[in-house]
């Protein structure tokens, strides 16, 4: 079982819609959770971190964490074509840090 | 700060040759990571250092791969001998804490 699992997509949403990206993790001892965005041909960049159950909002982005279900999600409101990228979920557990394989998002104008 | 600096940006080499990738982390960051990214396997952690000391090298695929961090501002990843299956984008990254990681622009390695 992989430490972090994501649906590879591709996920397509129309401009202005809400994009929902999901991630599950295998170890209940995981402590910190991160979303990275990677444009094609570029390096990953951190967009959100979340450490406790519930929602965390930053502009058009909302990260949601449910430790009981071992589930992390990222919602992008009012999706823009510039949001088209691969979104990587990452999980920290002790001295270990794991990335998922990413979900490709395309926002259609 | 200029961010994490990697060199070279692109490397094409013949099978069997030695390849050395270089990285300068962000000043003050205690953690340095080497990742490899391919379409098939995604982003894989190869090794990471904390305060110049290797902490976890379990991701290094085999003995052909080695990494060093002689000081806080420089690290190398060496592949000797290189093989076509090593072709990938190699990222160096640094952070103050695990998770909030800043990536370099990557080195695209092609072994022919």
Key attributes of the depicted protein:
heterodimer, A: 109 residues, mainly beta, 6-stranded mixed β-sheet, 5-stranded antiparallel β-sheet, B: 112 residues, 4-stranded antiparallel β-sheet, 55% strand
Structure description:
The complex is a heterodimer of chains A (109) and B (112). With 109 residues, chain A is mainly β. In chain A, a hairpin with a 2-residue loop joins strand 6 and strand 7. Chain B has 112 residues and is mainly beta. Helix content of chain B is 0%, strand content 55%. Chain B has no helices and eleven strands. Chain B starts with a strand and ends with a strand. Chains A and B meet through strand 5, strand 9 and strand 10 of A and strand 5 and strand 10 of B.
Rg on CA atoms of chain B, Å: 13 Å
Mean pLDDT over the full residue set of chain A: 93
> What composes the largest sheet of chain B?
7 strands, mixed
- % residues in beta strands of chain A: over 45%
Helix count, DSSP H or I runs of 4 or more residues of chain B: 0
Report Rg of chain A: 13 Å
Which structural class matches the secondary elements of chain A?
mainly beta
> How would a textbook summarize the main sheet of chain A?
6 strands, mixed
Shape of chain B: globular
Distance between the termini of chain A: 37 Å
Q: Give the total of beta strands of chain B.
A: 11
How would you classify the quaternary structure? Answer: heterodimer
Q: Which structural class do you get from the secondary structure elements of chain B?
A: mainly beta
Poorly predicted regions of chain A are none
Overall helicity of chain A: under 10%
Residue windows where pLDDT falls under 50 for at least 5 positions of chain B? none
Largest interchain contact: A-B, 19 and 18 residues
How would you sum up the global shape of chain A? globular
């Amino acid at each position: 079982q992989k430490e972090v699992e994501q649906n590879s997509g591709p996920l397509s949403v129309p401009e202005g819609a809400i994009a929902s990206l999901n991630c599950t993790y295998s170890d209940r001892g995981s402590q910190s959770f991160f979303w990275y965005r990677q444009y094609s041909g570029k390096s990953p960049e951190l967009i959100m971190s979340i450490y406790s159950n519930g929602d965390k909002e930053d502009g058009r982005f909302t990260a949601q964490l449910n430790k009981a279900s071992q589930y992390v999600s990222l919602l992008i409101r009012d999706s823009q074509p510039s949001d088209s990228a691969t979104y990587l979920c990452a999980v920290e557990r002790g001295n270990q840090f794991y990335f998922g394989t990413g979900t490709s998002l395309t926002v259609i104008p | 700060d200029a961010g994490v600096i990697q060199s070279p940006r692109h490397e094409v080499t013949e099978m069997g040759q030695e390849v050395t990738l270089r990285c300068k982390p962000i000043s003050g960051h205690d953690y340095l990571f080497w990742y490899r990214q391919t379409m098939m396997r995604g982003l894989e952690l190869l090794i990471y250092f904390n305060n110049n000391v290797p902490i976890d090298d379990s991701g290094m695929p085999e003995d052909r791969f080695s990494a060093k961090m002689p000081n806080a501002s420089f690290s190398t990843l060496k592949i000797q001998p290189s093989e076509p299956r090593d072709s990938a984008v190699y990222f160096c990254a640094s952070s103050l804490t695990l998770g909030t990681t800043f990536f370099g622009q990557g080195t695209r390695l092609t072994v022919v």
